[in-house]
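Researcher: We're teaching a course module on how sequence relates to structure. For the next exercise, students receive a sequence and then see the predicted structure as tokens, so they can try to spot secondary structure elements on their own. Here is the exercise chain.
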Amino acid sequence: MKTLAIRLEDDQHAQLGLIAKLEELTVTDAIRLAIDQWIESKRSNPQLVARVEALLADLDREAANRREAITALISGETTSDRTPSSETTSRRSRSKGGEPASE
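Model: And here is the predicted structure for the students to work with:
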């Protein structure tokens, strides 16, 4: 469990305390309930869902890159042992000005 400290305006704190007392809750339980409701409302937000899916795809790509690097390290494979991807090849075959490099 994590501890979180927040700052509230005096009137906001007074209202929160009063409502919690009337609902027979502690202020902490009222805050937890509000947070749970806020999180639940966000779960159905299509933009948030799309951002979460994009984040998962980024994490998967990063994990695949790390796995590849670890596998290469363990196998003793060097960068020159691997077949370069088309992106790497096109980057190497161009000079700084974007023109094909002269060889």
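Model: If you want an answer key for the exercise: DSSP finds four helices and no strands in the chain. Residues 7-44 form a domain with the Arc Repressor Mutant fold (CATH 1.10.1220).
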